[in-house]
Amino acid sequence: MDSSRTERGAESKGGQPLLSVRGLVKTYVMGSQAGGQPRRVEVLRGIDLDIAQGEIVALTGPSGSGKSTFLNVIGALDVPTAGEVLFEGEDVFDREEAGLAAFRNETVGFIFQSHHLLPEFTALDNAGMPALIRRVQRSEARRAALEMLELVGLAERVDHKPGELSGGEQQRVALARALCMHPRLLLADEPTGNLDPVTAEGIHRLLADLNARLGITMVIVTHNELLAEALPRRLRLGAGRLV
Amino acid sequence: MNAPADPGPGVTATTEQLASGAGAAANGGKAAVAHRRGRLPPVFAVSTFVFAAAGVLGAPLAFGLCQVLLEDRLGLASGTANGLAVLAGASVAGVLGATGAALGRRLGFYEIALATLVLLAILLGPLRWAMPALRSTALTVTAWEAQGGLVLFLGLFLTALGSGTAAFAGSSFGYLLFGSGRLDASMSYELFVAKSHLRLEPRTLAALFLLVVTGIAPAILFAGVWSFLRDRRVRRAALRGEIAHRARMPATMLMTLISIGGVAMGVWALTVVLSVMSGFEGDLKAKILGTRAHGVVTKYGQNDFTEWRQIREQVVAVKGIAGAAPFLYAEGMVSAGQNLTGVVLEGIDPRLAGAVVDLPRTIQDGDLEFLSHPERIPVSRDEDRPGERGSEGRAAEVPPARVLPGIAIGRELSRILRVELGETVNVINPLGDLGPAGPQPKSRPFRVAAIFYTGMYEYDSKFAYLGLEEAQRFFGAGDSVTGLEVRVTNIDAARPILRRVLAALEGFPYRVKDWGEMNRNLFSALMMEKVVMAIILGFIVLVASFIIVATLIMQVLDKRREIAVLKSMGAGQPSVMKIFVAEGLVIGAVGTVFGILLGLGTCFLIDKVGIPLDPEVYYISNLPVRMDPVEFALVALLALVLSYLATLYPASKASRLEPVEGLRSE
Q1: Is the pLDDT of residue B301 over 80?
Q2: Is residue B395, in this structure, part of any structural domain at all?
Q3: Which of B4, B155, B408, B538 is deepest in the core (most CB within 10 A)?
Q4: Where are any strands of DSSP class E within B271-310?
Q5: Looking at residue B188, what is its pLDDT?
Q6: How far is CA A218 from CA A86, A198, B14, B381, B604, in A?
Q7: What is the pTM of this model?
Q8: Which residue segments constitute the domains of chain A, with CATH numbers given?
């Protein structure tokens, strides 16, 4: 848990890093019921990391190395067992449930391996959902969603339901949804894992482009070493640590 | 914990550390764990418990106070007072529960459960010692105690349960509104999502409505035929080598439709049965109130109500009194030939009685006026002059000396005695004259002046009316009467109007009684029957609400991933809860609307088409219905409240789903 393995990010632009992780530990205790010894699974074993505003970071590592768990914890979807996640110096997990929900809503954007779009809704409604959750007016939410769909190059397909879109298009809608609230941090969990190489390449280029144009800080978990190579900063997780 | 590079030994080492409870790394980890746990909300919050306890314990107190205040002090009708008192109790529990939930930002189920147990302990424990002191009050508890230990126990148990439920309904409502830390009554996207889960299109709903209307049998027949045709089509397509596309209804949607049907059935049954029972009650009431007066003014003491003419003037002057007429009450027997039966004999003033009772309008044969003018009673068909049937209905020319006084009897009595209009009956006063060996019966012939038919067997067979003066003479009452029968303008306000009468007469020696008091046994039996019926049929709605629980649990399981995604987009716990509460409420509301429509339709049909009853048994030719808007509203409220309560368990389950868990379940 010491900081010997801390990987310091590139010099942060505003002095303070956007996100800094201190001694992050995540442990699951399983099977304590059936009389047997409880089994502790240590998924993250003390991670220290700083990410500066506007950075784009690739996170790679073998299956089970804790990439998704790490992403979930810094996105406040999961609670760490120990350690701190500081967002602009503020401990995210000092917040209560409602505060965490607001953090996920306003500050973070998520995209997953599966698009996780709501099947009954059009691309426009899907992309505007975070704004609706934020209690923005319906028309206002649609306007924001349309803007983001234009940004990801899907302006013509706004009235289609997810079932009527291709895999790449679905992932673009998911990206538009993640960007809807103008988040400071975009977390992508293998966004191209289900896509063919060409489409995957397109999504990655889009992410890099958005990072350059909007300055959104991004952490992208990927299996695809080739795509990871193209990103300026690469981190590798192995057995719950940064290596 | 830091040293091993490969995962295997690391895990082992940690297990050992855990077992021994030693090791610096483990200690450090523990401290951090404690820090994190501090952010998790407690399972039991004392501050929430304080509010819950105040609400749950305050509810029965508020109920008792309101009951005493409204019924005893303000003199409201018992039903209204009880209803308002229940409402007051539920409001106290609900509002305090909601406050606790809003301040603690928690549902507070355990807190309310504990508070309910505390209340139950108080009710079953200390209240027993306090019972003797409460006996003098008009509280419901004393009524329960009078009915025995079991009723008392059940009553107290249900009181505690009701208070707890009201508090929980309030607290869940408070949590839904304030759970995010500020007032958030909006349902914008929640309704949107709920709608997509339910997938209720007008077409589906119309089909469901038809299914419920036509009953189960045609629906099964239809489904069978449809399924047969589809299977045949699929087989033919398969023979041709095509893959037939077969639309499947998702299980959750089927469950949704079934639960809507369940609620609709319950509401339907409840409204129809209550309307029919109200119809019977109203019919009975109309007959009783038509034949008998709305109330009576009597005087303490015997045979000294001679100032009734002056009292009548005073009574009629009271606001709300439509009319008053004197009457003399006596019991005796009537006989004709070999037939003899005991009857209630009432002396009335035929001119005044019309303003008080419906008797003149129920006369089938003869005329009430003949009581005052017995010489005009037509001669019966086969008495004395069998050849002169043509003269029937015309005034007979009887010498005044032979004129017998008239008596009005009911149709059933005329059948029992086998007499008709104009025939003679003997009226016997068992306490007639005082002879050497005590009172001796006195008998006197009367002629049947009128035959009435009210439709109430009891009245038609047991009542006979005499002219007032004739009755006073026959029963030796002088100029005294038993009392005054009064009619009021609004029968539901009979009690307060009669209290005003009593006040105008300055109380003692006069006293008043309204129709409710005069027929207390009958109406409380009817009320009891109705309450029991409502409870039994209410179980249908309760079962329907269990179907809602099952449906929503299925929905929640089906939508775990979606819930997780919504949470990852920042949907808070109350917000996710709202989605499923909205779903359950939509199911309940649609079912209620269906049920109410069906109930109205059925009642209307019974009313217009009529279900014939054997008039000899029921005295009513058709099944009576009376649609009471208050009853319909209460049934709808019951269905909606039960639907709401049914949503709480699945919805809170959904809201507490960990996003990571939902995302993992692929």
Answers
A1: no
A2: yes
A3: B408
A4: 295-299
A5: 81
A6: 16, 21, 34, 112, 67
A7: 0.80
A8: 52-77+94-242 (3.40.50.300)
Contact map slice: B 79-108 vs A, CB within 8 A: 105
My answer on whether B476 and B339 are in the same domain is yes
| A232: CB partners within 8 A, 6+ apart | A55, A56
pLDDT digits (tens, 9 = 90+) for B37-87: 446 778 888 889 999 999 999 999 999 888 888 877 776 777 788 888 999
Q: How far is B109 from chain A (nearest CA, A)?
A: 18
Burial bucket for residue B422 (CB in 10 Å: 0-12, 13-18, 19+): buried
B514 within domain boundaries: no
Residue B451 CA to residue B409 CA, distance in Å, equals: 5
The confidence score (pLDDT) of residue B209 equals: 85
Q: Are B132 and B97 contained in the same domain?
A: yes
Return the structure tokens found at B212: 């419920």
Domain that holds residue B551: 188-283+523-664
Quick one: B484 and B447 in the same domain? yes
How many helices and strands (H and E) does chain A possess? 7, 10
Q: Show residues of chain B in contact with A193, CB under 8 Å.
A: none
Q: B195 and B172 in one domain?
A: no
Rounded mean pLDDT, B485-507? 81
Q: What percentage of residues in chain B have a pLDDT greater than 70?
A: 87
What is the ipTM, given to two decimal places?
A: 0.90
Distances (CA, A) of A58 to A69, A232, B217: 15, 8, 64
pLDDT in tens, B636-659: 999 999 999 999 999 999 998 988
SS3 of B134-184: the string is: HCCCCCHHHHHHHCCHHHHHHHHHHHHHHHHHHHHHHHHHHHHHHCCCCCC
Largest CA distance in chain B: 135
Instruction: Work out the pLDDT band at B253, boundaries 50, 70, 90.
Output: confident
B33 located within any domain: no
Q: Burial of A90 by CB count in 10 Å (0-12 exposed, 13-18 middle, 19+ buried)?
A: exposed
Residue-wise DSSP of B57-93: HHHHHHHHHHHIIIIIIS---HHHHHHHHHHHHHHHH
Distance from the Cα of residue A14 to its chain's centroid: 22
pLDDT at A123 over 70: yes
Flag whether B294 is in a domain: no
C-alpha to C-alpha distance for A189 and B565, rounded to whole angstroms: 13
In this complex, the residue of A37, A81, A133 whose CB is nearest that of residue B571 is A133
Return d(Cα A121, Cα A119) in angstroms, integer. 6
Has residue B236 got a pLDDT over 80?
yes
Count up the domains in chain B and report the number.
4
Are residues B215 and B275 located together in one domain of the fold? yes
B489 has pLDDT over 50:
yes
What angle, rounded to 10 degrees, do the helices at B188-198 and B573-608 form? 60
Helix/strand/coil (H/E/C) assignment for every residue in B520-559: HHHHHHHHHHHHHHHHHHHHHHHHHHHHHHHHHHHHHHHC
Contacts of A106 in chain B (CB under 8 A): 570
Instruction: Decide: helix, strand or coil at residue B365.
Output: strand
**Contact across the interface for B192 and A110, Cβ inside 8 Å:** no
B466 shares its domain with B322: yes
Contact criterion met (CB below 8 Å) for A76 and A68: no
Please give the Cα distance from B503 to B116 (Å, whole number): 46
B504 burial via Cβ count (<10 Å: 0-12, 13-18, 19+): middle
Q: With 80 as the cut, is the pLDDT of residue B388 above it?
A: no
Residue B358 and residue B467 share a domain? yes
Extract the tokens encoding B19.
């077992």
Mean predicted confidence (pLDDT) in A96-106 = 88
Contacts of A38 in chain B (CB under 8 A): 18
Residues B427 and B481 in one domain: yes
Tokens of A156: 């013509």
